[in-house]
Amino acid sequence: MFTDYTKIIIKSGDGGNGAATFRREKYVAAGGPDGGDGGKGGDIYFQVDKDKNTLIDFRYNKKYKAGNGENGSGSHCNGKYGADLYIKVPIGTVVKDAETGKVIADLSKPNQTELVLQGGRGGRGNSHFATSTRQAPRFSEDGDKGEEKEVILELKLLADVGLLGYPNVGKSTFLSKVTDARPKIANYHFTTLEPNLGVVKAKSGNSFVIADIPGIIEGASEGVGLGLQFLRHIERTRLLLHFIDVSGEEGRNPVDDFYTINQELKKYSEKLSQRKQILVATKIDVMQDETRIKELEELAQKENLELYKISAVTGEGVQNLIDHVSKVLETLPKEELIEIEEKMVYTLKDKEQEWTARREGNTFIVEGRAVDRLMGRINIEDNESMYYFHKCLKNMGIDDKLKELGVCDGDTVIIAGWELEWEE
User: Fold this and answer.
1) What is the pTM assigned to this prediction?
2) Is 50:115 a contact under the CB 8 Å cutoff?
3) Of the residues 163, 200, 410, 424, which has the fewest C-beta atoms closer than 10 A?
């Protein structure tokens, strides 16, 4: 089964907690704090695997998690880092944020590896919080939780030439003639349900890859007839061969077919609609009415397009087309066909200072990653730890914000789920 679209959930590893321990040795009366740091959580990477050509593995396994960092321990022993996770995907895979639709990574090069999601930082041990006035801190820092995201994986085939056109216009027959590919061929619509790739070698010795894309029909840009799945595979091609049936067997008008397909391209992607095209009149061996080919010649002249007439069954005109395509490809640059606005790596750093404060009656609620992280290093049973807590609230600006909201002595303040009583 060829699978070219799926959604998965990825989660980076949690950071390990720092230790709150003290040196205890014979003849050492006050050894001081010696808590080690927690290990960093594992990162999530996507990596190209040359042996994969489909996303089918992701249909059955939907969640991927990196390893958690280990907790720190005494004697300044730091916790072990969590294992990074490398998710193997076929070349041509595009990773998108499921919520925003933004492209995170385009894995279009052999052996390419992209960092997508960073693991949580390990918490610091109590030795980091010792000062000249606080020599025995009985608190440490919890590690950051890893980040969880839903991402979309799209496989966009890497080909130089895309075969474009309605179903049953001879694309598969053409591919089977010029390459070693063996697509399913029959005289009914949607014989091709999966994209097929083939390598063509021209007389000049140059070779290029052709993608036979399942037929596109009206409404494809809105998903009619699996259109969106089909259209994504021609996004990477440098040249489009637009196949148009002039046999009259289907009873359609060649000129109407041309404009209908190009309208779908434009709706899907303005950039794709401007890609270079060569018109290919097919099935000329069974052409019933020469007016169809004449209409197509007038269209080619009007749209300033080249027109080649072929019969994939008899081979008439096929070699000339292949040799011309080879020459045209030499003039077309291999540009970056997937646009990445800005390289994204999900990181926790952007959220470290996030917090919000609001008032509900005489209750004040403070939430956010910054206060979650702060409460993770507080021991509310320890006076020194609470003194450190109040100092942090002031430095973070939370004190001033609560006063601005009208907090008074005795009011209830809920911070990261902890219910405390405000004191001036």
Assistant:
1) 0.62
2) no
3) 424
